Amino acid sequence: MAAVGTWxxxxxxxxxxxxxxxxxxxxxxxxxTAMSEVEDDVDTGRHxxxxxxxxxxxxxxxxxxxxxxGLPGRFGAVAALRGIAQPCRVARKVMDRSPHSLLxxxxxxxxxxxxxxIPEPNENMLSDHTSTAYQEFLEKNKSVVSGHDTLGLIALxxxxxxxxxxxxxxxxxxxxxxxxxxxxPGCGLYADHTVGAAAATGDGDKIMCYCPSFHVxxxxxxxxxxxxACQAVLADIQRxxxxxxxxxxxxxxxxxxxxxxxxSSVEFPYTFWKQGMGSVEKLxxxxxxxxxxxxxxxTH
Length: 300
What we know:
Elements: E1 2-6, H1 11-22, H2 27-39, E2 62-69, E3 75-82, H3 87-97, E4 102-104, H4 105-114, H5 122-125, H6 128-140, E5 151-156, E6 162-168, E7 189-192, E8 196-202, H7 204-207, H8 212-221, H9 226-241, E9 249-255, E10 260-264, E11 268-274, E12 281-285, H10 293-296
Parallel strand pairs: 3-4
Antiparallel strand pairs: 1-5, 1-11, 2-3, 2-6, 5-6, 7-8, 8-9, 9-10, 11-12
């Protein structure tokens, strides 16, 4: 059993996953529950996730979320979903109840309502922090905000099932209808029950062009450790860019042995727990491909 999450703010979610996994719950329920609790917390909205997230340039919060099991064909996602503070729960319903895999905009909202979700007014989706930031954007054209986007969570349960989820309210002050990498399989997340799973975070408009989560899982299939796979994918992206600087991208991976790995083009904290550890640990990559010593303690 093991669990991993992107960024420092994932720690409560990974602690929740640890508790649920130890209680014998399955990986999909674990990811959905832990993710939805973060999504619905207005304080974590400033990290560009769920309630309290930053709105688009018209002032409306639109959320993307996805969940993917390692079993073939088990994927569900929503994008540009308005008024739902726990979009991951709707994504789970898409996976379980819809003949489709990805629903967007009004279609996603209608589907959610049919299954009992009640959309909230947009003002309920904003926080004081993000409302103030939006006003500064309107008055001063201040579009740069602090924080990181995308919560990615991976859980491996006692039965060997592995599930990955991703959720974000997207780039601050984005164009209405903009969709990033988070709800796209292979881009923001990917899972295979015979190998493991991976999730990405960062500049979604760029990340989606490289399908890094799929690439990480494929390298693990070929024998790479999670850490080796993440580092190799990041190096491949950097080579293909052919520039001195890389856009913001962070990768986490977990294989079916419970080994974890990560790589990032920026300083990247992430949180991790595996069976036998007494508590959740926070691991930090200081810069791309250079500080893996602490991470390697948990890879082998």
